[in-house]
Amino acid sequence: xxxxxxxxxxxxxxxxxxxxxxxxxxxxxxxxxxxxxxxxxxxxxxxxxxxxxxxxxxxxxxxxxxxxxxxxxxxxxxxxxxxxxxxxxxxxxxxxxxxxxxxxxxxxxxxxxxxxxxxxxxxxxxxxxxxxxxxxxxxxxxxxxxxxxxxxxxxxxxxxxxxxxxxxxxxxxxxxxxxxxxxxxxxxxxxxxxxxxxxxxxxxxxxxxxxxxxxxxxxxxxxxxxxxxxxxxxxxxxxxxxxxxxxxxxxxxxxxxxxxxxxxxxxxxxxxxxxxxxxxxxxxxxxxxxxxxxxxxxxxxxxxxxxx
Length: 308
Known about the structure:
Layout: H1 2-30, E1 55-56, E2 59-60, H2 66-80, H3 83-107, H4 114-121, H5 141-146, H6 161-179, H7 182-191, H8 193-203, H9 215-232, E3 250-255, H10 262-268, H11 273-279, E4 296-301
Antiparallel strand pairs: 1-2, 3-4
Helix pairs in contact: 2-9, 3-6, 4-9, 6-7, 7-8, 7-9
């Protein structure tokens, strides 16, 4: 009797042990493993890097001031966490900066103003704002015409990167002459020279960092600063974009007559209508009326096979 009890007890222990082992084998093989704590790869907002000294267009930014450093950090945090937007801008930069930079230098505008184009349009030549501003420099129709650009149903040179850049330079030189500061010139590009002049008179202050501005214009210069800092030091903000979009070499075709059908024109030059519009977004219709025989230069990609 006692022997049977012992045997029964041992049998029960073996069964219990087998059940425990089976449970853990099942759990290991078939159950989902517990998720590890997710740690974002990007810098936390509280850890965003901010330099001790900073210059915009050759002018020192007074980062020792609480209002200035906090406004700068705000835009660094915002743009550090706009991942898809900021990555796309960094990847696009070589393609458009190689056009913009030589023009800025030739026109006597500080190189940092290429970042104004970044915050205006995200380097999108086809950008159109809710207010009707167009192109990489976001020019309004009236302003563009005043600056010498052609804006008609057939041709809108606000979409022409080189010509629009020169128009923006003309505005910035005039603003710098008026306000004596590139920082103020940048602010006026957003709010207008009249607005900035009124605020200077009202507040009896001329230094940009002493002026109380509206939300949009108040953030404008700091956004420009933030994009400069991030795009020149992407590794400090955990942006590792890899290969950037390549520069697209082109040749120019001189045109002094009307073009009845731009699709036919494109095929005559070995490209599609889509590719023609990609490189010449300033051509707004399917034809080009040119009764006055103005001279236009239409861009054709050198590597035509890359677009077929």
